[in-house]
What we know:
Layout: H1 7-34, H2 38-72, H3 78-98, H4 107-131, H5 137-140
Helix pairs in contact: 1-2, 1-4, 2-3, 3-4
Amino acid sequence: MVMGVSINQIRKISLGLQVSTLLTYMFGFTALKLSGSKKEGIQRHGKINTLGYTLGALSLLYMMYSGLRLIIARAAPSIMYIHGTFGLITLALSSLFVANRWSWKTIKNMRTLVVLFLSTFSGGVYMFSRLYKQRTPAEKSE
Length: 142
Ligand code: HEM
């Protein structure tokens, strides 16, 4: 329990935030493609995707907390380290985009980011399916 909320409830909120991030990115891509003017489309795409990044960053706070607890309890599955490494790279690259580092904002880097994000997301969904409802030693000691 964290402030009266069960860990499984927070887990579901965190998953909801990541799914919202994914949907926002899809929306941002559609906005770019549907926009009449290229300049306007790029601006809209940037704003929408920054919102998606913020939603994902909120969920990251929980994931860091949960990761640390799993490591301390020696209950971390090996996929967590792979997921975390991919996640940190994804985060670093997307931060460069949000911080408007134009030299990094290439189509090639955006495609790389899509692959990284989707791989990290899939690993996260797999972990969710393993951890949801299953009480880890860290949770049992609460
Ligand atoms: C863009 C980056 C990331 C994405 C898209 C992502 C996605 C997800 C998703 C969808 C879940 C399942 C829902 C949940 O339980 O929260 C998850 C779980 C988790 N992620 Fe991430 N993640 C990212 C970055 C990270 C990073 C950087 C770390 C650690 C350093 C991390 C550690 C974890 C842990 C420990 C869990 C299991 C949490 C739990 O259910 O108790 N993730 N991630």
